[in-house]
Amino acid sequence: MKxxxxxxxxxxxxxxxxxxxxxxxxxxxDACVARVNGFLVDVNIRGEKGSSVIEIYVDTDNGITADxxxxxxxxxxxxxxxxxxxxxxxxxxxxxxxxxxxxKSVRQYRKNVGRRVSIIPAAPGENAPVEGTLQTVTEAAVTxxxxxxxxxxxxxxxxxxxxxxxxxx
Length: 169
Prior knowledge:
The structure is a single chain. This protein is globular. A five-stranded antiparallel sheet has the order 7-6-5-4-8. It has a three-stranded mixed sheet with strand order 1-2-3. It starts with a helix and ends in a 5-residue tail after the last strand. The protein has two domains: 2-95, 2-Layer Sandwich (GMP Synthetase, Chain A, domain 3), CATH 3.30.300; 106-164, SH3 type barrels, CATH 2.30.30. By secondary structure, it is α+β, with helices and mostly antiparallel strands. The chain contains three helices and eight strands, in the order H-E-E-H-E-H-E-E-E-E-E.
């Protein structure tokens, strides 16, 4: 029992350290991506201590280029190294979120008005995705026009996951 409590305590401490690190990296990335008029979408850390992979997803209102990602990556790496935030070796990956990543910010929703989306509500018992065309976006809510021509309004805070659907012509 004591051993399990000790392990759980260390796991909780490790998660806390990772969350603090993600917050610090997010702060740095936010400032760096602003230089290309972009915005931070997400930060993930995977791997193990001494060989971490830091994934940073960034975008702009018009889509981000490979050159802009490289510029942001260099700026972030310089800051991370100057602050010595990462113990050991790490690999930094800066890219656009792509269609396979869920939308995380109101700015992403705005960028995708007019596109087909899939939204999974956060309400208990409502697990079925709602698919439709993203119509309007405010700071608090998004409106989706569904196939049956009905409109669904979702509070941004009540969305578990939202993704842009690929369109093939």
